[in-house]
Write a structure and sequence with these properties.
Helix 1 (6-27) packs across helix 6 (97-109). It is globular, with a radius of gyration of 19 Å. By secondary structure, it is mainly α. The relative contact order is 0.10. It is 76% helix and 0% strand. The chain folds into 2 domains: 1-52, Homeodomain-like (Arc Repressor Mutant, subunit A), CATH 1.10.10.60; 55-180, Tetracycline Repressor, domain 2 (Orthogonal Bundle).
Amino acid sequence: MPKVSDEHLAGRRRQILEAAAGCFARNGFHRTSMQDIVKESGLSAGLIYRYFDGKDDMILAIVGEWHTSRAAGLRTGDDPFAAYLGLLKEIAGPDAALRRNLGLQAWAETVREPRIRALARQGVDDQREAFKDIAPDAVIRVLVAIYQGLLLQVSWDDDLDAEAFVAAVRELVRRPASAAD
């Protein structure tokens, strides 16, 4: 039997995760069945189970990739605050609806699934690490809360002015400490 290339395996895995993410974003984690993912992917159930033990493994992979991408985004360039503002703009963008839906659901899953809680915790810790040399931990946690709050608000409030939100955050993070007192 010919050996399948690593690129082919990675492509199949990506195909499965994209199908699962689409189903999860539309229907939620618990209302999505493996059959939904099979149908969306166009692959057989047996092939999908070669890559993942079930939905929870797919959720973990999707959340893990999301946190890895966000952590890499925070390390872009010399100015972590500029990178942070870029992440705010990105999550508020019209093309980020799928990621927002998945993010909200993943946070809800943290109360049920310890592995997802650990990934969410790692996401917060990645942000704390990215900013540790330039801001106190309490300020970093406020920035995390702002990100989470924007994600939530932009998910349900079609009238939210994301540009004004990001501009207000820019003013908050650029203001000298003495002006904030």
